[in-house]
Each structure stands twice: as C-alpha cells, then as structure tokens.
C-alpha cells in the first residue's frame, strides 16, 4: 500500500484543488452565461484521477455483470459500470468498473492472478479478464448483493447512418437537426474514460523508473470536438512541469539523484527514447499491437492499435504545443455553445462531398476546417468568438507557457479574466448559411487567414490556401491543400449555400421520406449546380501522344504502350494541323536522338575494346 500511496502523491494536491472548484463530471452542457468554467488542465486532471480508480474486465457477455459485480465488490465500493463490445470473429465483451478511490482499484489489480497457460511476461495492468469460477456463487447471494444496473450498454457503438437520418428527418427545424447531429455523434463519456485509461496504462508501465512520467491525452479526445471512434493522441513526458507543494521540499534536500546527461541533440535523443518505448509497448503491454514507429517526421510519433479498446493511438514525446492547441480549441468551444454543433455539421458536410479524406494528402483536414469555422465566427457583424490576441492580452504570469522548442503558447486560461461575451443572437442554422456565403466569396488567392489577428492578411507565399498556425505563426496549417482542392472547396460551399437558402427558418410540414434540411445538404446530388471540374479544361494535347505507340524491345519484338487516355477531338482545322506537325517534328527529333545515342555507344565500345587488348596481352605475358 505504501507503493500505491507514493504512486499518487502528485495527484492529492490536485484533488484538493478540484474539490475547491466544485468540479462535476456530469454530462450537462455548460451554461453560456456563466464564466466560472473549469480550464482544460483541470478537466484532464480529473479524468486522469478517474482512470486511476478504474479497471476494464473482459467477460463472456453482458449477462456476466451481476456475478462480476458480486466478486469485485469484495475489493471496494463500485461507483459505476459501463459495458462495451469490440468487434472480432465473435464480439468481445468488456465492462469498465469505477471504484470509489484509487486504492480500492489498486487492491483489485494486485489481487489478480497471472495467466500460467501463456508464455508471455507477466505484466501488471488495469486490463483484466474474468475467468470461470471453480465454484459458482449461489443466485441468492448475487440477488442479496443488490446489483445495480449498468450505466452504459454497448457504449462505444457509433450510431448507424439510417438511424441518424431518421432522427434528422423527424426534427422540427434545422436548429434541432444540428443539435441532434451533435448529440448523437460526439465522443461520449465512456469514450473519454477509455482513452484516459489507455493513457494511464502507458504511464503506469513507466512509473517504476520514471516516477514523474505523465501520459497526457490531447487533440479531439479532450477538446470537445471529438466524434465517436476518433483516434487518441498522447504525449508522454518524463518531467512534469506542475509539481505539487508536497514535492517542493525536495528542492531543499541535500541528497540529489544522479542523472545521466544527454550528450546528443534533443531530437536524436527523443528518437532513440521513442524507439525503446516502442519496443516496450510492442513486447510487454497487454492489448497493444501493430506498433509502427514514424521517427523521421517533424514530430516523431509511435502509432499502435489497442485491441481491448478498439482504438488507434498516436504517441509522441515532443509535442507540447499540440496540447496547448487543444486547450485553445477547448476554450473556443466553451465561449459559445453554438461553436461545436456548427463545427460538427461542417465536418460532416465536407466528408459527404469528398472534401476530406482519412488518408493524408492534398485534401483539407478536419483541423483546417475547424480553423475556418473559428475564423468565420470572428468575422460576423457581432463576433461570436474573440481573436487569440485578445486572449494573449488578458494573460497573467501564471498563463505563460513556453515549450522546449521555444514556441510561445501564452494566452489567458481564465474565462472570467477574459470577460468576452458575444452579443450575436443568430441561430445555428443562420450561422451555417452565413458560413457558406462567406467562404464562397473569400479571396483564397491573395488572402491568408489569421485567428490570432482575427482578420485576413496578405498571403506570404503561393500556397493554394494559407491558414496561419495559431501557435507557430511561421507555419501554414493548410500547406498540404492543392490548388484544385481549394477550388473544389469554393465550389462546394457555393453549392451548399444555394441548397440552404430555401431551408433556413422553414418549419413547413414535411413527409417522413422527404430529404430536407441537413439531409439535403449531406446528400451529394447527381446533377450538382457546379461540378468540381468546372474550371479545369481538358488538355488539347496529351504528352503521351507525342511518342510512338510501339517500341522495339530488347528481344526484337514490339510492345504496345498503355494508351488508356483518349485524345480529345479538335474541330478547329488549324489547331488539328498544328498538333499533327508538332507530333511529326517531335517524332523526328526523337529518332535523331536515338540514332546519335546508338552511334556514340558503338564507337565508345570499340575504343574500349582497343584499350583492353594491350591489357590482355600484358596480363597473358605475365
């Protein structure tokens, strides 16, 4: 028990702090008119404490819960239980149990047995399985224990598209549709719990050698913009910046730990450390599989899959700015309750019309779309959101954050100190239409988007789309977006604006089978008003057409080139004649090049033979 108490000495101070804030973990939406909101750091800390009180147990089915509850109650008081499934050949069932405190959860883990039938290394972990008992408890004993009902059943299942469409169709207006979409697709409480438990597993595995190790979730899992099934981003730190008062006495101690000095640069050291951590994850941690190390990226990461959580995880060690970016997005979502539902709708629309893609490439990302939404809400006649510079000016010394890469992440965290309150009373459906109208006229060719200034700036380079990185302002968030994809965005927002013009503020009676409101927006029409290729004309001449269709191979036989691209017909006689002349002249030039190349090759080989002949005679004479 002494080891357990030491394990959580860094958390006791924060627990007192959270109780003083009267923090509640309920799912009630925040009041937009109340400024005493908790910071993301407080919420992350409470979720980390929640993970220390939890275990995940694999069971044969949901019906095993009464027996599991009866057995695990012997270790402590169970505050809640959540059931979920992981798709497999046959669905695997799991139940997350939350105890009253972390000590009771630790006792349950310490009393668990190791699997002697497997040859793997025994590992202490919050992920367990419930094996059959040699002597089953009597039904009467289970009934007397007053088993409560499960808080969640199949809690990690995403809503089916048909069911979501039915809910959207039954809504009375577009504002209700936007609320239904957000409430049914956002990351739920169980999803957040499982992600913090995955972080706790990594942190617990490191604790023996690194007592200050801290695995912190960031990104969509914590900023309020995450949807069901989203990936987990983790940052692993070995030196906690925030130290409790109980630990400050160590700085006055005359006994100091020996520390191994790093003699190489920081990036190389991080890569070597992550390589070792990747080996540890792959070899020892239960549930971790498909480990991939991407160490040459700008931010080195380890990607892996957790089979007990059905979760994709990205682990980094040098991305503190990513956490502070999550903190910034969280604050924007808390400023106004319309921000997140609007963002969810824009992302859903972009996915429906093919603007976003799960694979990295030339497409716009969800993060860039979120930046577009925030920037638009800064531009409304009565701004819905403040600029980042407003947050920077309201910062106090305790808000100063400078990363190890010298990235300034300083901005005010206290909503009351910022004191921003929007006077914009527009409904979400009206803001949605205004979003499409705004970007259908935005000058992406010459202007850059700056959330820091809250206004458009002159574009510093020739990128198709330029969104200034809010924290690293020398970088372009949307540098990957191609010119064609940027043009497609303009066309699609114009189409969406035309579709919504007839939908806003209409409460007419509609048939249950009718596609209206968001359903008409998410449905890709066959006869689109503007096609994405409307501004891209076909080439008059294909380069492949300049070459002969056949080429003599090395064995003397001719082989055909793959000519799947058809040359467009040209009605203009002058253009047609010019194309034929160009093809003929280029063909003659190619033949001359081939002849000259073959002649030079043959003459070169003759000279080589002449030079080699004396050498052979000398070698023969010797």
From TrEMBL:
Residues 594-616 have a biased composition (Polar residues). It comes from the Eukaryota. Its cofactor is Mg(2+); Mn(2+). The keyword Zinc-finger does not apply. Residues 548-562 have a biased composition (Basic and acidic residues). Gene3D superfamilies: 1.10.1410.10, Beta Polymerase, domain 2. Keywords: Magnesium, Metal-binding, Transferase. Residues 428-463 form the PAP-associated domain. Residues 548-622 are annotated as: Disordered. This is Poly(A) RNA polymerase, mitochondrial. It comes from Glossina morsitans morsitans (Savannah tsetse fly).
């Amino acid at each position: 028990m002494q080891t357990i108490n030491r394990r959580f000495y860094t958390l006791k101070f924060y627990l007192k702090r959270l109780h003083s804030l009267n923090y509640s973990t309920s799912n009630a939406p925040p009041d937009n008119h109340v400024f005493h909101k908790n910071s993301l750091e407080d919420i992350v800390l409470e979720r980390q404490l929640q993970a220390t009180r939890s275990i995940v147990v694999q069971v044969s089915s949901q019906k095993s819960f009464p027996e599991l509850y009866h057995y695990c109650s012997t270790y402590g008081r169970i505050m809640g239980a959540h059931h979920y499934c992981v798709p497999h050949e046959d669905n695997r069932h799991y139940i997350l149990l939350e105890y009253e405190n972390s000590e009771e959860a630790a006792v349950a883990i310490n009393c668990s047995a190791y699997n002697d039938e497997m040859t793997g290394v025994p590992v202490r972990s919050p992920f367990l399985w419930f094996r059959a008992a040699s002597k089953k408890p009597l039904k009467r004993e289970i009934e007397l224990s007053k088993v409560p009902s499960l808080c969640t059943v199949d809690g990690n299942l995403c809503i089916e598209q048909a069911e979501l469409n039915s809910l959207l169709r039954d809504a009375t207006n577009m504002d209700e549709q936007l609320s239904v979409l957000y409430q049914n697709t956002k990351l739920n409480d169980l999803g957040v719990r499982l992600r913090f438990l995955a972080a706790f597993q990594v942190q617990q595995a490191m604790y023996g050698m690194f007592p200050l190790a801290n695995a912190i979730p960031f990104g969509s899992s914590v900023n309020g913009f995450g949807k069901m099934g989203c990936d987990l981003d983790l940052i692993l730190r070995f030196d906690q910046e925030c130290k409790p008062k109980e630990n400050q006495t160590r700085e006055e101690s005359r006994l100091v730990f020996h520390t191994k000095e790093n003699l190489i640069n920081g990036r190389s050291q991080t890569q070597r450390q992550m390589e070792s951590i990747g080996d540890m994850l792959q070899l020892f941690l239960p549930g971790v599989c498909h480990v991939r190390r991407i160490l040459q990226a700008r931010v080195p990461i380890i990607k892996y899959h957790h089979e007990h959580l059905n979760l994709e995880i990205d682990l980094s060690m040098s991305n503190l700015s990513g956490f502070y970016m999550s903190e910034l997005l969280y604050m924007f979502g808390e400023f106004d309750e319309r921000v997140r539902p609007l963002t969810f709708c824009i992302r859903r629309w972009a996915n429906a019309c093919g603007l976003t893609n799960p694979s990295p490439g030339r497409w716009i990302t969800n993060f860039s779309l979120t930046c577009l939404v925030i920037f638009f809400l800064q531009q409304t006649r009565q701004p819905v959101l403040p600029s980042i510079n407003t947050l920077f000016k309201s910062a106090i010394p305790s808000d100063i954050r400078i990363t190890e890469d010298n990235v300034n992440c300083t901005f005010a965290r206290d909503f009351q100190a910022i004191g921003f309150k929007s006077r914009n009373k527009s409904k979400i459906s009206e803001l949605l239409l205004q979003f499409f109208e705004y970007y259908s006229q935005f000058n992406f060719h010459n202007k850059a988007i700056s959330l820091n200034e809250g206004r458009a700036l002159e574009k510093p380079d020739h990128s198709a789309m330029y969104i200034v990185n809010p924290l690293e302002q020398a970088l372009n968030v949307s540098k990957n977006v191609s010119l064609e994809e940027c043009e497609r965005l303009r066309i699609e927002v114009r189409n969406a604006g035309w579709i919504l013009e007839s939908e806003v503020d209409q409460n007419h009676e509609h048939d249950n089978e009718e596609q209206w409101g968001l359903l008409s927006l998410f449905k890709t029409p066959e006869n689109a008003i503007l096609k994405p290729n409307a501004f891209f004309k076909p080439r008059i001449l294909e380069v492949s057409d300049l070459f002969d269709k056949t080429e003599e191979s090395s064995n003397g036989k001719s082989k055909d080139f793959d000519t799947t691209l058809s040359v467009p017909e040209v009605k203009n006689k002058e253009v047609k004649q010019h194309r034929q002349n160009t093809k003929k002249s280029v063909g003659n030039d190619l033949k001359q090049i081939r002849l000259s190349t073959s002649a030079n090759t043959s003459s070169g080989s003759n000279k080589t033979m002449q030079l080699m002949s004396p050498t052979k005679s000398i070698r023969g004479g010797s």
